[in-house]
Design brief:
Low-confidence stretches: none
Radius of gyration: 11 Å
Strand content: 5-15%
CATH topology: Arc Repressor Mutant, subunit A
InterPro entries: BFD-like_2Fe2S-bd_dom (IPR007419), BFD-like_2Fe2S-bd_dom_sf (IPR041854)
Domain BFD-like [2Fe-2S]-binding: 12-60
Protein name: BFD-like [2Fe-2S]-binding domain-containing protein
Pfam families: Fer2_BFD
Length: 64
């Protein structure tokens, strides 16, 4: 994870895969709730895993 890049753009969730909040939210709105499924929806796969908590937070916020 590149923390410097995340600080420069707070909408960037996953620096390894260039996934932004919009990418994650789109997957969630399409019914994906699991981290690996969300990555797969965006045609990628988990790499370092540092974004897992942020992705889970987005899932939790949308599913409230």
């Amino acid at each position: 994870m590149n923390e410097k890049r995340k600080l420069q753009d707070p909408t960037l969730v996953c620096t390894c895969n260039e996934l932004y909040i919009d990418n994650i939210e789109e997957a969630i709105h399409e019914g994906e709730e699991e981290y690996a499924e969300i990555m797969q929806y965006n045609d990628t796969f988990p790499r370092c895993g540092e974004c897992h908590d942020h992705v889970q937070q987005l899932v939790d916020n949308i599913n409230r």
